[in-house]
Write a structure and sequence with these properties.
mainly beta; 1 helix; flat
């Protein structure tokens, strides 16, 4: 059973950044879990935290079908009062035949320099891992990535 599309759609749904608050720290969290009609389990959670200098929103979900197949996805987005903001998504899939794969994508933008860093890492059981990083300026031109 291939459930990747469900996880990917969920992970990319509604990443609305919370503007950095000027008040004290506030954290909200919600989550739920239930058995699926196929005999598996599904769970999800969401959290938001905001404070005087930064805000973050995060979501995650996992679902299995009771036959050994499972998918999961998570994502988070943040913004700081200094103008740095970013987003990260992660997903994985494991099939009952033992195959497995996962991916992580990160994008961070520095408002003061205008430079955006995009990074992607992926793994497929039996094939190994790969990683790529690229940087662009505010106009979308490729630029050298600075030190970590």
């Amino acid at each position: 059973m291939r459930m990747t599309n469900i996880a990917a759609a969920w992970a990319t749904a509604c990443f609305c950044l919370v503007a950095p608050a000027q008040a004290q720290l506030r954290i909200d969290w919600a989550g739920a879990a239930a058995q699926t009609a196929q005999g598996g389990v599904g769970a999800r959670s969401a959290a938001v935290a905001s404070g005087g200098r930064a805000s973050i929103v995060a979501r995650r979900a996992i679902v299995s079908d009771g036959q050994g197949d499972a998918v999961g996805a998570s994502g988070s987005a943040f913004a700081t009062s200094s103008g740095v903001h970013g987003i990260r998504t992660r997903s994985f899939e494991r099939a009952s035949d033992g195959s497995a794969s996962g991916e992580r994508s990160t994008r961070i933008t520095n408002a003061s320099t205008g430079v955006t860093v995009d990074g992607t890492s992926s793994y497929t059981k039996g094939s190994g891992a790969s990683r790529s990083v690229s940087c662009t300026d505010a106009a979308g031109n490729a630029v050298a990535c600075g030190p970590r």
